[in-house]
Amino acid sequence: MTDIQTPAETPAAPVYSVAQERRIVTAIPGPKSHELQARRAKVVSAGVSSALPVYIERANGAVLVDVDGNQFIDFGAGIGVTTIGHTEASVVEAAAAQLQDVIHTLFTITPYEEYVRVAELLAERTPGTHEKRTVLVNSGAEAVENGVKIARKHTGRRAVAVLDHAYHGRTNLTMAMNYKAHPYATGFGPFAGDVYHAPSSYPYRDGLSGADAAARTIGYLEKVIGASDLACLVVEPIQGEGGFMVPADGFLPMLQAWCTEHGVVMIADEIQSGMARTGRYFASEHFGWTPDLVLSAKGIAGGLPLAGVTGRAEIMDSAHAGGLGGTFGGNPVACAAAIAVFESIEANDLLAEATRIGRTLTAGLERLKARYDVIGEIRGIGAMVAIELVQPGTGSTTKVPNPEAVSALVAHAAQQGVLLLSAGTFGNVLRFLPSLAVSDALIEDALHVLDDGFAALG
Ligand SMILES: *Cc1c(COP(=O)(O)O)cnc(C)c1O
């Protein structure tokens, strides 16, 4: 890894334009949010829902401000998008400057340097020192689609394998790749074929070692598909929507070794787990996994829409000229923001911040777990932490999912100015995906709110 910026001295503490504190001054949602909700209902499709319908007017660091003047500590970060902080100064500056210079040309008509620079940064920061190529697109699902396209072209094979509890997006192909039909796919078929769902590693519920879980997955791939028909295996190193499952040690490298042996392209969907979220640039690194292709999106451009597929040159270059692209893919403003994100991660040592956040959060959640037996497991790495909630008294036996407790806690926290997200195949996971700007003091404050919420569960 080469330094892109070596600060001469320790960077000054960031200055925030919004006080980093929660503040509730109306009912939640407040009157102005209610008015906007009424306008929205007349013009926005009912298919687009909002977890917490407070309308946000301003955001900075780890705090959201709504139209009624309420402030929320944001443990969602737009689902892990504003990883380096809301309206982070260097992102704002880089994007604003780019808006003055060039907003759009379309890279496939007349190219520009920012796209090339993002590809260089991704080549240097994704796992492995092999030669790499990148294509930039607009969204995570589009990155998944392109990864699959490229793998099929490279291998000349048809089948796509994913893991149980996976989430890969909302386009036609990715709906077929998700584990959960509802709400993502219900009624939206017919779906893409040749997609196979193989067993995953979910240590809390399957109790398997990495080697045993990998053997089970490989057994499925060999019997149900057959290696000679399999183009790619797409895997989230830490599953996101599924509930932050951290696979057992050895699981991912064993799958990669099997894929390499059989000419299958193994693709890391790092859309939620990547870009410094876990204290490394990409979560794959924690597991000693060097994927063939890596998908990035969410946190890559500080909140602007950008995504990419990065991987082995011989695989990426098997796509013919003109085969990849799209009108907005690799937009110059989004690319300028992404360059600022990489620079900020390195100048402000945000990998260490992610680790710091994980330590504080996990310690606090351990204290809660000792007192509330609905917490079945605490898991995650860095600033990607979750708790899985079970029915009281079942934590060490049947582990009966407790989605009601998750809903109650999310609602309680929102009323107190803490924005939390649920997750999980069974809807029984509370996830913490804060921006890396969140201080230990804000985390402790949110943990107190959560403590009251657990006490109120009775
Ligand atoms: C969010 C997400 C996607 C889809 O990304 P979009 O930008 O919403 O299309 C795919 N995979 C994972 C792991 C995600 O978290």
TrEMBL record:
It comes from the Bacteria. Pathway: Amino-acid degradation; 4-aminobutanoate degradation. Keywords: Aminotransferase, Pyridoxal phosphate, Transferase. It holds the Pfam family Aminotran_3. Its EC number is 2.6.1.19, 2.6.1.22. InterPro entries: 4NH2But_aminotransferase_bac, Aminotrans_3, Aminotrans_3_PPA_site, Class-III_PLP-dep_AT, PyrdxlP-dep_Trfase, PyrdxlP-dep_Trfase_major, PyrdxlP-dep_Trfase_small. Its cofactor is pyridoxal 5'-phosphate. It catalyses: (S)-3-amino-2-methylpropanoate + 2-oxoglutarate = 2-methyl-3-oxopropanoate + L-glutamate; 4-aminobutanoate + 2-oxoglutarate = succinate semialdehyde + L-glutamate. Belongs to the class-III pyridoxal-phosphate-dependent aminotransferase family. This is (S)-3-amino-2-methylpropionate transaminase.
